[in-house]
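Quick one: sequence plus zinc ion SMILES, need structure tokens.
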Amino acid sequence: MTTELLFRDDAYLRSATARVVAVGERGIELDRTVFYPQGGGQMGDTGVLLRANGETIAIADTRKGDALDSVVHVPAPGAALPDVGETVALEIDWARRYALMRLHTALHVLSCVVVAPVTGGNIAPDKARLDFDIDMSLLDAATIERGTNELIVRGIDTQTVWITDAELDTRPALVKTMSVQPPRGAGRVRLLRIPGIDLQPCGGTHVKNVGEIGAIRVLRIRSEGRRNRRVEIALSAPAAG
Ligand SMILES: [Zn+2]
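Reply:
Sure thing.
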């Protein structure tokens, strides 16, 4: 069943109310949600569903469901389950999500400092990484850190733009990530634009202004196979915001 993805239009929504439409082995489906399901390298949200009877259902993870735009809220082991048709209040772990948003947006900036094909990526609340197809000798931690932070400090607003699948096909250079093609099938593709810095398809959650990232540190750069160089970063001030 399709879920209305409230985070797609407003990544800053921490709570909402929704109706339970299915409860299955994988988890709980709602008619709308603020929980981001794991995808595009970004981890799924955690949080709680609050029942009208006062009971709290801890959500340990969020995953994509089988249908397009469907979301499965994975309850923590032993958590109570709601009834289909019931209205619940949703609340994500905002501190965790905001860290994910800052790190996710930081990777967009990083991908413009290290100019090479991206072969993979991952965003966790405490650190994030991008893998590049590049020669190790071209990667210097101090240079990457300085270059990324110089762009962050410009304080540019991010924008979400939608284009059609057909438009994307005419601009293949937009897709930097070789391993993660943008989701197709809905007829249109969501792009993140950081004017003057980056433009690429992305369905994830981002901060409104790159200045919110603060600054990043390069934790390490290491070789992950013959054509894979992994750059791992963390926020300099993880708890800010
Ligand atoms: Zn993104």
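The CA atoms of residues 43 and 124 lie 6 Å apart. The radius of gyration is 19 Å.
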